[in-house]
Design goal:
The chain is an alpha/beta fold. It folds into 2 domains: about 1-120 and about 300-315, 2-Layer Sandwich (Nucleotidyltransferase, domain 5); about 130-295, Nucleotidyltransferase, domain 5 (2-Layer Sandwich), CATH 3.30.420. It has helices at about 40-55, 95-100, 110-125, 190-200, 220-225, 230-255, 270-285, 305-315, and strands at about 1-10, 15-20, 25-35, 60-70, 75, 80, 90-95, 105-110, 130-135, 140-145, 150, 260, 295. The longest helix is centred in the C-terminal third of the chain and has 25 residues, at about 230-255. It is globular, with a radius of gyration of 20 Å. The relative contact order is 0.15. It binds zinc ion.
């Protein structure tokens, strides 16, 4: 009988879920809006009902061995989502317990960046690596740190928050309530904040001056940079320097074989990557210089879903 796992990726807007085999083939997948149901029980029932339809459609020759979930503030140790700022259900959500009411299999939960790191290890570019870091660059900045083949969860399950190391004392206000966190500079929103800071302090002409703050996207900045816009180019340099410096710092602590960049901003182009590579080496402690690879993620846009299902396969290998 073929083994299969369920992967669930809970995002702020949509929840994607699917049935995945051991080779990373998605046999069934679907999604629902995350925030429509007032009651968490109803939301879990909706997902479970869709998955049961999926399971019955693929026949009897499969054995479901577990459910992996990537969720904001998902805690591996407790099986709960705890105080996720961008979800409507507040406090502590007992996600693992709720899912087990529908499926009598083990449920493993972690945050989305950790799930992406496991996905990279099982299906992506980190297949033969034991020490690496995945940095997800989207609206915010997430990271999954793998040390000696294991995800770093820390004492409470929340380790690896590279997005919230302080890179600028009393710098930009962050969603976490503090100031100067890395993700306020290195993320799609951080990039836009940098553009506006530069537009305010510089007198150079720039096409970006004509785009209102709420409409400006990282893609606009990438296009302007490709056309030689000096403000856009400087924005990528500033962003690349901040990330390169943070990578040098985390490398001094964990000595990874490689750093993988994943997500919308990582796709913004070679420009950002080139600056990150340059400043990574510029700031790197000499014993680590020219050793640590900076690589694009090899996972597709289904990475979060695959990563969530990979949580189950990685537990099987232990
Ligand atoms: Zn923060």
């Amino acid at each position: 009988m073929n083994k299969i796992a369920i992967g669930i990726d809970i995002g702020g807007t949509n929840t994607a879920f699917g049935i995945v085999d051991q080779n990373g083939n998605i046999i069934f997948q679907n999604s629902i809006p995350t925030q429509e149901r007032e009651n968490i029980e109803d939301y879990i029932s909706d997902i479970s009902n869709e998955l049961k339809i999926g399971l019955s459609s693929i026949g009897d020759d499969f054995e479901l061995i577990g459910i992996g979930v990537g969720a904001p503030n998902g805690n591996y140790y407790t099986g709960c989502i705890e105080q996720a700022a961008n979800l409507r259900w507040k406090g502590r959500i007992e996600l693992s317990k709720l899912l087990k009411q529908h499926f009598k299999v083990p449920v493993i939960i972690t945050n989305d960046a950790n799930a992406a790191a496991i996905g990279e290890m099982i299906y992506g570019g980190a297949k033969n690596m034991k020490d690496f870091i995945v940095i997800t660059l989207g609206t915010g900045l997430g990271s999954g740190i793998v040390i000696n083949g294991n995800l770093l969860y820390g004492s409470d399950g929340f380790a690896g928050e590279l997005g919230h190391i302080i890179v600028e004392p009393r710098g930009r206000k962050c969603n976490c309530g503090r100031m100067g966190c890395l993700e306020t500079y290195v993320s799609a929103t951080g990039l836009v904040r940098t553009v506006y800071e530069l537009l305010a302090s510089e007198v150079k002409p720039s096409k970006l001056r004509d785009i209102p703050f709420t409409k400006l996207t990282s893609k606009d900045v990438a296009i302007a940079a490709q056309n030689g816009d000096e403000i856009a180019l400087e924005t990528f340099r500033v962003t690349g320097e901040k990330l390169g410096q943070a990578i040098a710092d985390i490398s001094a602590i964990t000595s990874p074989e490689a750093i993988f960049l994943f997500g919308g901003l990582a796709n913004a182009g070679k420009l950002l990557i080139d600056y990150v590579e340059y400043y990574k080496e510029e700031y790197m402690l000499s014993i680590f210089k020219n050793k640590i690879k900076l690589l694009p993620s090899e996972l597709s846009e289904d990475a979060a879903l695959l990563g969530a299902s990979a949580l189950i396969w990685s537990e099987q290998e232990k």
